[in-house]
């Protein structure tokens, strides 16, 4: 059981929650990014720097995840690949992607991308806030509890 983090776009408060959770539960957390990351010293935290390029970090995560692993990402196509590989995916805002919801989320993402490429202003996500942080922490705790009971 490993936690993989799509770390380039992961909010700092979420990384901090993950640092503490990995240390507390002694579960390996691997932070994958295009740039160098400074992690607190811990045998449970690993940084993997990948070359810059389109979806390089996503590719490493998608090909490394195993059933039972958790991936932290807001990248819906990556979440889809993770679920197909038997892993679980959790958005930094606390939304768990499932087999039942990922295809609809992927379809909506593609639709919004088409609108943007046609010149339509679609707006972006709401600013990250304390409620998002709490939802994430609660979802992570539920995942960690399930892992300990398995």
Describe the secondary structure blueprint for this structure:
Blueprint: E1 2-6, H1 12-25, E2 28-33, E3 45-49, H2 56-64, E4 70-72, H3 76-84, E5 88-90, E6 96-97, H4 99-117, H5 130-149
Parallel strand pairs: 1-2, 1-4, 2-3, 4-5
Antiparallel strand pairs: 5-6
Helix pairs in contact: 1-5, 3-4
Secondary-structure element pattern, one letter each: EHEEHEHEEHH
Output mean pLDDT.
89
| Count of beta strands | 6
Q: Roughly how many Å is the radius of gyration? A: 15 Å
Unreliably modeled segments? none
Strand content: 15-25%
Widest sheet: strand order? 3-2-1-4-5-6
Please give the largest β-sheet.
Answer: 6 strands, mixed
Structural class by sheet pairing and helices: alpha/beta
**Distance between the terminal alpha carbons, to the nearest Å?**
11 Å
Helical content class: 40-55%
How many H/I helices?
A: 5
Q: What is the molecular shape?
A: globular
Question: What does this 3D model show about the protein?
Answer:
- With 150 residues, the chain is of the alpha/beta class.
- It contains 5 helices and 6 strands.
- It has helices at 12-25, 56-64, 76-84, 99-117, 130-149, and strands at 2-6, 28-33, 45-49, 70-72, 88-90, 96-97.
- Strands 3-2-1-4-5-6 form a 6-stranded mixed β-sheet, with helices on both faces.
- Helix 1 (12-25) packs parallel to helix 5 and helix 3 runs antiparallel to helix 4 (99-117).
- The longest helix has 20 residues, at 130-149.
- 27% of the residues are buried.
- The model has no long low-confidence stretch (mean pLDDT 89).
């Amino acid at each position: 059981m490993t936690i993989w983090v799509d770390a380039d776009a992961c909010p700092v408060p979420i990384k901090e929650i993950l640092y503490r959770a990995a240390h507390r539960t002694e579960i390996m957390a691997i932070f994958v990014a295009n740039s160098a990351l400074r992690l607190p010293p811990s045998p449970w935290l690993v940084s993997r720097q990948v070359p810059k390029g389109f979806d390089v970090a996503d590719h490493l995560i998608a090909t490394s995840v195993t059933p039972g692993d958790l991936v932290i990402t807001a990248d819906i196509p990556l979440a889809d690949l993770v679920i197909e590989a038997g892993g679980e995916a959790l958005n930094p805002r606390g939304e768990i992607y499932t087999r039942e919801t990922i295809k609809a989320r992927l379809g909506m993402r593609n639709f919004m991308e088409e609108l943007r490429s046609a010149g339509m202003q679609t707006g972006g996500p709401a600013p990250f806030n304390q409620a998002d942080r709490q939802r994430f922490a609660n979802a992570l705790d539920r995942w960690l509890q399930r892992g300990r009971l398995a």
